[in-house]
Amino acid sequence: MFDQTADQTPRKILARKLVVLSAGAFATPQILERSGIDDAFKLNALGIETISDLAGVGMNLRDHPRVRGGTALVDARLGDTGDDIVDGDPTTLASLQSQFKEDKAGVLSWNFVDTAIKYRPTEDEVKALGTDFESYWTENFIGKPGKALISLQSFMM
Questions:
Q1: Domain that holds residue 147
Q2: I need a surface site. Which of 28, 76, 97, 141 has the fewest CB within 10 A?
Q3: What would the DSSP string read from start to end of the chain?
Q4: 13 lies in a domain?
Q5: Percent of the chain, pLDDT > 90?
Q6: β-bridge mates for residue 78, sequence order
């Protein structure tokens, strides 16, 4: 949460070695842009001094509604799990599509998702997460009832 009482005086910090900035998918581009790293035209239009004219900061950001978690070791041959399908492996997908076109059978002829959960918080939960989240929620999720904040899936192959 942003501390309104914190000292907001701009400071210049110099580094003698490589600095890696990692603040998550949303915060990293925002920090870079506010620091003057992005397309100079866009930054200048916003009144931000350009430090590095590096177009495309944050441009390939995508919503990631699928969370993959949990690992189980199985005694299976390569290709017996849905990992290659979920990861979009081109070789696996081409092979499965070919198999399906030929005999309308194989993995693509059935749903291998055993369970799935789509979670959207209640209005009270959105408010409890604070004004920053509430603004994000309003901008990206209101009027989109099929869009999940979190999606969990269990695969059975």
A1: 63-157
A2: 76
A3: ---TTS---------SS------HHHHHHHHHHHTTEE-HHHHHHTTPPPSEE-TTTTTT-----B-----------TTSSSHHHHTT-HHHHHHHHHHHHHHS-SGGGS--EEEEEEE---HHHHHHT-HHHHHHHHHHTTT-TT--SEEEEEE--
A4: no
A5: 4
A6: none
